[in-house]
Known about the structure:
- By secondary structure, the protein is mainly alpha-helical.
- It folds into 3 domains: 2-55, Ubiquitin-like (UB roll) (Roll); 70-163, Type II secretion system (T2SS), domain F (Receptor-associated Protein), CATH 1.20.81; 177-411, Type II secretion system (T2SS), domain F (Receptor-associated Protein, Up-down Bundle).
- The chain has 16 helices and 3 strands.
- Strands 2-1-3 form a 3-stranded antiparallel sheet.
- Strand 1 (2-9) and strand 2 form a beta hairpin.
- Helix 12 (293-303) packs antiparallel against helix 13 (307-319).
- The N and C termini lie far apart (88 Å).
- The model is unreliable at 47-65 (pLDDT under 50).
Amino acid sequence: MTVFQYTARTRGGEKAAGTVDAPDRRAALAEIERQGRIPIAVEEARGAAAARKGRGPHFTLGFKRKRMRMREVLVFTTELSDLLASGMTLGNALNALTARKTGGPADEIVAGLRDEIVRGTSLSDALARYPRTFSDLYVSMIRAGEAGGALDEVLRRLVAHYERVQEMREKVIMALVYPVIVLLMGIVTIAFSMVYVVPKFKEVFDQLGSALPLPTQILMAVSTGMARYGWAVAIGAAAAAVGINRAVRTGRGRLWWHRMQLKTPLIRGIVASGIYANFARTLGTLLANGVPVLQALGIVEKTVDNDVIGREIRKARDRVTDGTTISGPLAAGKVFPRIMIDMLAIGEQTGDMVGALSHIGRRYENELDRNVKIFTTALEPILIVVVAVLVGFVAISILMAVFNITSGLNV
């Protein structure tokens, strides 16, 4: 057991200090909370720390994940919004969430947020200490909610925003499930045929010694190459995948990849619709919470997962001079659709930018649904035809050899 010194506050808000014996810091925090106190600072007692140091080197694991997934952030935001809406104070709400142990990084992050709030830090500043979990969009909206005294309302809007983002991602993922399964099954079937089935026929054909048709010769050569050098092909494919992945992560490679996404048939509709919907929803949410236009554009630039669109947003942000109109600067880049620019201009003229952005978001979410349906409708038969051609080539090549041999034997 180790001795930990702590500073805490009682339920009445009074400051208290003391020590507890626990095997680690997490257990010490749990013990302090069990005593009905809210811990502010907990650290190992100097004497115990010195004794541990004297026993030898102490190693810590530096690769522990301290990042909440989007689903975890959504659950945290929903629960915090519900607790605040019920009349609970922010500190008590975070303390209640801390008691719900999940065994993941959320426990440590929520406990850290609670400790910062107890010390007097604002929620937005506390969230900013975890940039890998809470984005600039999240922090900026919380800061705007704190300034306007409507934190629970902002949290509800964040919940709605993250639910829409999660829904769009799930739509795209679900659209890819069936085509990927068809492709993988086709690859496995072809590989099994080339490695195990075709060599059996090759032994028979070699024993008969008859001349084989050209397609059969090609098939046998490919099968022999896969059997002998399949491991080298697999290693080469893995190395190529790693090299492409690293190249795409560079600035120029990432820009090229994102530009190709906006030009490739079938894919460009899904990518563009998702980006435009996310742009409109995010910008509208920020403006509705009182975030200035220039700051909002800077945040949206970071949330758009496409360097081509992100560069145009950055250029548009530099062109904005009066801080209110954005349709003209966005139109200058000639990347955003004309109808989207016209709808933004109408919103600026009527003074209802948030309403215009909401309408744009709905429009492109519906377009995303249509593009996903078109993608799946077109891709499924394409993959089936490709797999059928490959399997058919194997079958026809073998049958041609069989017919050639049987005709030579006058059977």
